[in-house]
Design brief:
Structural class: alpha/beta
Largest sheet: 7 strands, parallel
Number of helices: 17
Radius of gyration: 25 Å
Strand order of the largest sheet: 8-7-6-9-10-11-12
Distance between the termini: 43 Å
Strand content: 15-25%
Shape: globular
Length: 523
């Protein structure tokens, strides 16, 4: 009999369903997790909500086989350490999405109609009707950053208010955006045009501190900014600096740590909640049901669909998954952040042909930082399909003798259709990009920081680029500069010692009249 430990206030349905299916269940939300784990060292499965599953907790459970996060985000679980211990980690994506979408509507209306201060005032016996002159949501422009499950549900929930919706998502195709009734925009455009902005993006190296003084400097007076995503994506100090000038209204439900105590946003938040996004009876029940069902399917039927830290299959070098991710990142950056792909076509040669499906998640992660590269292939396929991105794995001609290599093509539709094709392989245990479009014989070592500059070929361009980097104390490690003789264009790829500031990239682009300029940072 497998033993399940539930150290959280999860709906009792999970325990009941698991017990009916022959599992031994211990549910205890009062005892500290470390103490509870030590008392139940024979646990095989642990179902958690936002509890931190650290290496220390994992080491207390030597028989642990599966951790299920009853919710979507699994950033509180050390999935890499779990993998080392041969422990699968699952999530239940979508279980909490509607609850969060409805919460966003609630806090927007609370902010627009001063519901919280008006309630407090009236309870005191005051009658300050004129003080609480509110605004209506109907007819406003709402910007949504991140159009995954929550973002798309929020679009539906807003439809009755007759609002104009602007959206940013690194993956969502123009066709899917049109279906939803969303105008795809840059982040900068959303912050300039919106009356209300709701954040639904992950916190990572690219998004940390994203909402900063540069974006906030151009917002409309009276902007309502809602953060029910992650605390780290906003710069609190920058909000504090512009709040009075812009009459900015900030609604917050997320914090660096879910715990009692003073909160750093208390002085700038007009509506402040204790991380209630997923805290509904319905969401708790759905998460509990799905966590229990997935646990039962895992042990009784061997179904691992929602495992987010899958092991690499026998015969596949995990470095090829890293390569697929890096090549896709290059393609996405080459197209530009405002050109979301509508189709991805792949070709896998040599022994990689049989492992094509294991590249799907790294490819999805290459165009969307919110998606984990070690997710299951089916989850990656669903993620892309949900955003209107078609994935096609082409048959290959093995007679070309390309060895164990891959080609990843990204296609853009709409008014300005386009394509980028990137090929790569592994040589002497090094990840290599061998071609970008018709810039052949590139042989770029995919590690560290790289600056890409495409330009109309003419003498002296490399010198101008190198001179600008040198003047800004940026050391050059390596330079690759293949030409496309048909078009008369060249592509300079410079490996540098450190990430290059955007201002320096802009300076380079202006000096050489670049067709495109971007940078890539790889481990």
């Amino acid at each position: 009999m497998n033993k399940v430990l539930i150290p959280t206030k999860l709906d009792k349905f999970a325990a009941e369903l698991l017990t009916k299916n022959g599992f031994e269940v211990v549910q205890d939300s009062a005892t500290p997790l470390a103490e509870l784990a030590a008392k139940n060292a024979d646990t095989n499965v642990m179902i958690v909500r936002s509890e931190a599953v650290t290496p220390e907790i994992i080491d207390l459970l030597p028989k642990l086989k599966l951790v299920v996060r009853a919710g979507a985000g699994f950033n509180t679980i050390d999935i890499k350490y779990a993998r080392k211990k041969n422990i699968d980690v699952m999530n239940t994506p979508g279980a909490n999405s509607n609850a969060v979408a409805e919460e966003v509507i609630a806090v927007i209306l609370a902010a627009y109609r001063f519901l919280i201060p008006a309630d407090n005032s009236t309870r005191r016996g005051d009658w300050e009707k004129s003080k609480f002159l509110g605004r209506e949501l109907t007819g406003k422009t709402v910007g949504i950053l991140g159009l995954g499950n929550i973002g798309q549900l929020l679009v539906k929930r807003l439809s009755g208010f007759e609002v104009k919706i602007l959206g940013f998502d690194p993956v969502l195709s123009p066709d899917r955006a049109e279906e939803l009734g969303v105008e795809l925009c840059s982040i900068e455009d959303i912050f300039k045009r919106s009356d209300v902005i709701s954040l639904h993006i992950p916190e990572n190296n690219e998004t940390r501190g994203l909402v900063n003084k540069d974006l906030l400097a151009n917002v409309k007076e009276g902007l309502v900014l809602v953060n029910c995503a992650r605390a780290g994506i906003v710069n609190e100090a920058d909000i504090r600096a512009v709040k009075a000038e812009k009459k900015l209204v900030y609604c917050n439900d997320v914090y660096p740590k879910d715990a009692p105590g003073e909160k750093s946003v208390a002085d700038i938040a007009d509506v402040m909640l204790p991380h209630l996004g997923a805290n509904t009876k319905e969401a708790n029940f759905t998460a509990a049901r799905r966590a229990a069902e997935q646990t039962i399917d895992y042990f009784q039927r061997g179904i691992t669909k929602c495992v987010v830290n899958k092991a690499v299959p026998d015969g596949l070098d995990a470095k090829y998954q890293v390569l697929a991710n890096a090549l896709t990142q290059i393609g996405s950056l080459y197209l530009g952040k405002d050109n979301n792909p509508v189709r991805i076509e792949t070709s896998f040669y040599g022994s990689l042909t049989e492992f094509a499906k294991y590249m799907t998640a790294p490819i999805a992660a290459g165009i969307a930082a919110e998606f984990a590269p070690d997710n299951a292939a089916k989850d990656a396929e669903a993620f892309l399909a949900d955003r209107g991105v078609e994935l096609v794995n082409r048959d290959v001609d093995q007679n070309k003798k390309y060895g164990d290599s891959m080609t990843i093509d990204l296609f853009v539709g709409g008014a300005n259709p386009g394509k980028v094709s990137v090929r790569g392989t592994i040589v002497e245990n090094r990840l290599m990009a061998s071609r970008i479009n018709d810039f052949d014989n590139l042989y770029l070592n995919l590690t560290g920081n790289h600056v890409f500059v495409e330009y109309q070929d003419e003498p002296g361009v490399i010198g101008k680029i190198a001179g600008t980097l040198g003047a800004n104390n940026i050391n050059i490690i390596d330079i690759r500069a293949p030409q496309d003789l048909k078009s008369g264009k060249s592509l300079a790829v410079i490996q540098v010692c450190t990430p290059v500031p955007e201002a320096v990239l802009k300076e380079i682009a202006e000096k050489v009249s670049a067709i495109r300029t971007f940078q890539l940072a790889l481990k």
